[in-house]
Design a protein that fits this description.
Number of strands: 37
Mean pLDDT: 89
CATH class of the largest domain: Mainly Beta
Number of helices: 10
Radius of gyration: 29 Å
Number of domains: 3
Helix content: 10-25%
Distance between the termini: 39 Å
CATH topology of the largest domain: Jelly Rolls
Low-confidence stretches: 1-24, 288-292, 623-636
């Protein structure tokens, strides 16, 4: 389990052989000729598997992808033995991989050191388009990842044609093995002695490219899920059993908690101070749960190093809270923006650990240094979770609402008769949007604002200068900035033209990105469509020499959770757009049917966002044409 952003979950058996290079329409770049998975469980729930696959490179891109295969495992709990590795030429010749091309790398994975990790790199010789590789190896899960059980997922993605896939599962009759599968044909071969044998098969005739912004896509992926855990409570209890001794309230923890909360009154205020201290003082170091283990370090180790992964953050924060009499638990969660449903059987599915405070009803993720107290990052919102201490049932984290993912924009464009303009964009982010503003400012870096302004204006083809300033608020969950541009070539031909009601920068909520979610004519998979809110006031101040010939009409659209209201008015020489739009969705994704229902209104909103006023120079006015540059590109 990767503490955030691991695409494949389950007990560790990482085959890093597929990248985006393997995925293409039609036959694709790689063709699976044969795949065999023989999995044998013992009475204790650990297992041995023999994996044997032959994949052919359809073209040079496929050959480049297949040229090296990687096997990653944890020597404390797992073993891997390569049994056969060879290149098979298009003519049928076989070239064995020499032992010198099976190399071991210890202790490092993705730039992070793990002493118990090993990575096998297998390089296949003389591989080109039309050739195939065959790899056969034994994987042994010697010890369970958590007490009392283990689990495994095999995915068969549709990024390649698979001619012949077979999964054989053997296990003792006495072992309660939970099995789920999708798009595979299951045959129960019965019982021989004390052993039961199941056989699952799969084949495909074409590749299927994933739909854009797909949610819960594992539901449409062929898979086999195997687990010896009876239910989600068994996993929660196993994690709690493994981690409970690590979050002990030691004298050091008690003294630190008292010092951090000195002078604070309520439990909520104390919890905020402890949360802020952990997220600001304990450096987040990404780790695999599975690779880095499912058991956190103890508080003494974490405080000594001042860094840790998600489990370590959750462990230390839990101990600090408990030291102040604030009940807390660790929480297992799958943190990403794609998976919002649990699998049909209880698995080690999760990739992240956070905290829950039952007396305050709060979930906290101290690994996100940008997120203010009480607000979860997008990847943690609306997720099924296991609160591991005194587990009762699967809970769900709060969903982001239109109020805590909100942006207010105030834009003033003072347009001059020579085609120049001064545009001021004031943008405030609320809740999660405030964290994105903070990240935006920090990415620019202190003292680098003018360099950012110059580059931003140059990229937009604008001739001029400007400034960027952070605008702080008394509220921690609100943060904004002011971006001012003096643009000499806002319009090249001021005698007549159009002006968009557009800010200088988009802000923390990308309307274009949201609208792009709805460009697909049809869907079969769930799609992302969570709540948000954008409030705009845009003023275009026209000079007396200009005459506005057309001002867009007011428009109002309300359909399902989507709302859009835009009003245009003239106030003296100022032409104002007041616009409110967003979604009040009560979940983070919509079904294919819900997507189809929302798509027409989002298409109309896309057009409405392009509204512009039309102006001409009055007959008795003369102006000097501005010099150089292209007209300003306007994007809402």
């Amino acid at each position: 389990m990767w503490c955030k952003n691991l695409p494949v979950c389950g007990t560790l058996l990482a085959l890093v052989f597929i990248s985006g290079a393997a995925c293409a329409a039609g036959e694709g770049h790689i063709h699976s000729v044969k795949e065999r998975f023989d999995v044998s469980f013992d009475a204790e729930g650990t297992y041995t598997s023999i994996i044997d696959y032959t994949w052919r490179a359809v073209d040079l891109q496929g050959a480049a992808t297949l040229g090296q295969q990687y096997l990653v495992y944890d020597v404390s709990r797992q073993e891997i033995e390569v049994l056969e590795a060879e290149t098979i030429s298009a003519q049928g010749g076989v070239i064995k991989v020499p032992k010198s091309d099976i190399k071991m790398q210890e202790g490092v994975l993705g730039g992070v050191s793990y002493p118990e990790q090993k990575l096998l790199q297998i390089t296949f010789p003389k591989l080109t388009a039309g050739d195939a590789i065959r790899l056969r190896y034994r994987f042994v899960q010697k010890l369970p990842d958590l007490p009392g059980g283990t689990s495994r997922i095999y995915y068969f993605y549709r990024d390649m044609i698979r001619d012949d896939v077979a999964v054989t599962v053997r296990y003792p009759q006495s072992l309660k093995l939970n099995i789920a599968h999708n798009d595979l044909v299951l045959a129960d071969d019965g019982v021989s002695g004390d052993e039961r044998r199941l056989h699952l098969t799969f084949s495909s005739k074409d590749t299927v490219l994933p739909e854009p912004v797909s949610i819960n896509s594992w539901q449409q992926t062929p898979y086999v899920m195997l687990s010896t855990y009876a239910d989600w409570k068994a996993i929660a209890d196993a994690y709690q059993q493994a981690s409970t001794q690590k979050s002990v309230v030691t004298p050091e923890v008690r003294a630190l908690a008292a010092d951090i909360t000195k002078g604070a009154g309520s439990q909520r205020e104390q919890a905020r101070l402890l949360y802020d201290w952990v997220r600001k003082n304990i450096r987040y170091v990404a780790s695999y749960v599975g690779n880095g283990g499912w058991v956190p370090n103890d508080t003494a180790t974490i405080l000594k190093t001042h860094y840790g992964d998600c489990k370590d953050h959750a462990t230390l924060l839990e101990a600090l809270l408990e030291a102040r009499g604030i009940p807390a638990s660790q929480v297992l969660i799958y943190s990403d923006t794609e998976n919002y449903l649990l699998p049909p059987v209880a698995l080690l599915w999760f990739n992240h650990a956070i905290n829950y405070l039952p007396t305050l009803g709060l979930f906290l993720d101290s690994t996100d240094s940008q997120m203010p107290f009480g607000i979860l990052p997008e990847g943690d919102s609306d997720k099924p979770v296991l609160v591991t201490k005194n587990f009762e049932e699967v809970r769900r984290t709060p969903i982001a609402t239109a109020d805590n993912f909100k942006m207010n924009r105030r834009v003033h464009i003072k347009f001059a008769a020579d085609g120049s303009a001064v545009r001021t964009s004031e943008i405030d982010g609320y809740g999660r949007a405030a964290a994105e503003v903070r990240s935006f400012i920090e990415d620019i870096g202190p003292g680098q604002e003018q360099d950012w302004v110059k580059k931003t204006m140059a990229d937009a083809g604008l001739d001029g200068d400007g400034s960027l300033q952070t605008v702080k608020s008394a509220r921690e969950d609100v943060l904004g900035f002011r971006y001012t541009e003096s643009i000499r070539n806002y319009v090249n031909q001021p005698e007549a033209g159009v002006l968009a009601f557009s800010p200088g920068v988009t802000g923390p909520i990308s309307l274009g990105k949201i609208l792009k979610r709805f460009t697909q004519p049809e869907r079969t998979a769930d799609a992302k469509c969570d709540a948000f809110s954008v409030n705009d006031v845009v003023d275009i101040e026209m000079p007396p020499a200009m005459q506005v010939m057309y001002l867009p009409k007011d428009i109002s659209m309300h359909e399902g959770p989507i709302f859009f209201d835009a009003r245009y008015e003239r106030i003296g020489n100022v032409y104002r757009l007041t616009r409110k739009w967003g979604s009040s969705s009560d979940k983070s994704w919509c079904s294919a049917r819900e997507y189809q229902a929302m798509r027409p209104v989002m298409s109309r909103i896309d057009k409405a966002l392009g509204a512009r006023l039309v102006f001409v120079m009055k007959d008795d006015a003369t102006v000097a044409a501005p010099s150089g540059g292209a007209g300003a590109a306007a994007h809402n």
